[in-house]
């Protein structure tokens, strides 16, 4: 099946209004699905692009991805840009105007099924918006599972996954965390780097949170549960899986946003929310009527576009947008 034919079929799928404006499926066995929202159909073609200049990206020194042979590459789609075959992790700071800085920091983890990263819609755009609120934001480009080097083969691999040829993903988040040890190591290194340069970046080491999207939401949750010394002060889970988990005694406050028409995670219950509540930990949950999966910072006509304002109001309620003391 050609990439054009399977993309066309997806754009006519009954789930199209709830579909992804990105390569998504943020669960960990890491077989993403590409679904195409009709609003972005004119931009659905994946076009290879040169790796953007990233002069501010800081290597995290977690080492190359074991066994990786394909080099990092980038492509454009839906008017945005994506990375894949990331073999060495980096962290890119987006620092606020010093006059507005409040001492809070957030590690931003884009989604993409652990095979791509939505670097613009779920990374840079989020970080810029946080910096405008006085928050020091850091986009984590974490290591990814390898995909075919060439774009045609990559597109074919996506088609195979969608048609059910490839292995289906796990749905148990705690078991799935076993599969993302390299990515958890990248997140831990990101927290360590920010804390080591906290004075330089005007960050309070005790006020570093984390927000993730889809697969990035899974990594965010894994960092809070299994990240050992990382310990986010708060977390944002944006359209990640909501299966129940064992909540540790030091679990942070959590903000969750999901669309009721999300084709992947809207019909599996809200066990994660229940787990946090039963553990007596602060949790705020926004279930939007429409928005699908992968809405990120795209401006849509649905109320899901308001998730960022809700998230920062929640941060402000907890005092994280106010200078400490």
Automatic annotation (TrEMBL):
Species this chain originates from: Sphingobium lactosutens DS20
UniProt cross-references to Pfam families, sorted A to Z: DLH (PF01738)
Dienelactone hydrolase domain ranges (all copies): 125-318
Molecular function terms from GO: hydrolase activity
Gene3D superfamilies: alpha/beta hydrolase (3.40.50.1820)
Keywords: Hydrolase
UniProt keyword Membrane, yes or no: no
Record carries keyword Hydrolase: yes
Matches recorded under InterPro entries: AB_hydrolase_fold, Dienelactn_hydro, GDXG_lipolytic_enzyme
Name listed for the protein in its UniProt record: Esterase
PANTHER family to which the protein is assigned, alphabetical: AB HYDROLASE SUPERFAMILY PROTEIN C4A8.06C (PTHR48081), PEPTIDASE S9 PROLYL OLIGOPEPTIDASE CATALYTIC DOMAIN-CONTAINING PROTEIN (PTHR48081:SF6)
